[in-house]
Every structure is written in structure tokens, then in C-alpha cells.
Amino acid sequence: MDNRPIGVFDSGLGGLTVVRELLERLPHEDIVYFGDTGRVPYGSRSPEMVKHYAMQDCGLLLKQNVKYIIAACGTVSSVAGEVLKALPVPAMGVVEPTVEAALAATKTGRIGVIGTAVTVRSGSFEQAIKCARPDAQVFAQACPVLVTLVESGWVEENNPATEAVARQYLEPLMDHKIDTLILGCTHFPLLAPVISRILGESVTLINSGAATAAKCASLLQQRDMLSASDSMGSCQFFVSDQPYNFTRVAEMFLGRAVREDVRRVDMEGIG
Fold first, then answer.
1. What is the pTM (predicted TM-score) of this model?
2. What topology is assigned to 6-93+210-269 in CATH?
3. Which tens digit of pLDDT belongs to each residue from 58-73?
């Protein structure tokens, strides 16, 4: 057993969708979350810069003595896999578990992917899908404005502006007659009701946060790394910019009140 916390990081607050799922599946685990709010978004950065940021983010979590690290960011998972593999603790991104869930769900093999521009350009989801199922057809769409809308709190199901933007992004995927859609950015589960209404009941949405948390829980159990504590786990939150807006947005992602302190960290001193 291992009572050290699980570390989770993202470029902003979208990774809290993974934390939300972890809290449901592993209620006795402590969690340390870092949102790089001072450098968001990663999705428009170069792959080299994303890798550099990922190394710093992991360095911060390692200083908190975490036992496992989750890169709850589709962009990092897509272009910085070697950074995660080189860490002194086990680590995972969102691509592999999300692809596993999508392949289990699809009936036709016609799978859509939405994510940031970097994620889509990397082809990471398509490569992973094709490796496991060569006959699958993958259709990807970059949706950068959706990330901004979620970070701004525009996630209401009846918000006409959000629905208009989502529909414009999703219509090309509808033309390809997909039966499964990967929400390849951890921000997007908050828009699932809007997306589902546009695509219809025939399309299964794959929540990368839920798939990743489920995979993490399974791996920790297999490796005998679950916490031995009988008490409810705690959360620590770190950000790289001023935390004054964190609570409002974090509560939206977590689905619960945030009563914990939120600490700002200076990333310049982290290698």
C-alpha cells in the first residue's frame, strides 16, 4: 500500500474533470492538483514548449512527494509522452485510456476526435486507434474556441453562443457518420450535454477524464499502490497565476464547493 498522494496536472483547470472522477472512484486517496493557469493554453504552443512546461509541471508535483502522476491534458499526452516515461514515478496521460474506451464503445469503427490544435496536429489519438484497430476510420477536429468558452464558464446547456460554436465544429464530424466521439480535451466533458444534443443519441461520447481515472484506479490496485487509509482523502490545489478566479471555475469542474486553500507557485524556479 502507498499513502502518498496522486499528482494531477493540466495547463488550466480542465484537468479537474479527472480529479472529480478520481474522487468518486478513489475516495480515500489524497490528490495534489496543479493548474498552469499562468501559461494556459498549451494547445497553441509549439511541441517543444509543451514538453518544457510538462517537465516543470511534473517537477512541481514530484516536490509534493506524489506516487503517481496523471497528465490530465490532451496536448501534453499527445506530444510529451517521453517526458512522462522518464519520470521516477509511474505516470500516464489521457490518450491510451481514452482510446481503449472508444474502441470498446464503437460499433462501426468510425470515431471522431475533438481537441486542441496541437493535439489534433499530433495525430496521437488516430495513431493509437489505428495501432489497435487498423480498419478504424478516425476524423479529427480542432476546437480551440470551446476551450476558451469552458474556461470562461460558458457551459450552460441552453447557451446559444456555445451551442453555435460547438455545432460549427461538430457538423463536419456528423457528415462522416461517426458513432463515437472522443472528448480529447479534459475541458470538454462540461460541454457533453450540448455536444450530445447536437450529435444525437446514436453517437457515444467518450469522457477522457472518466476513462483516465478508471485506468489509474485499476493500475494502482494492480501495483498494490492504493492508500491504506480509511479516512476520506484530501485535495491540495496549486496554480501558477493569481488564484482569485480559481474557486468559481474549479467548483464548476469538480461539481462541489472548494473549501481548500489555493496556493500560487512560481514556475521559474522549477527545472
1. 0.90
2. Rossmann fold (3.40.50)
3. 999 999 999 999 999 9
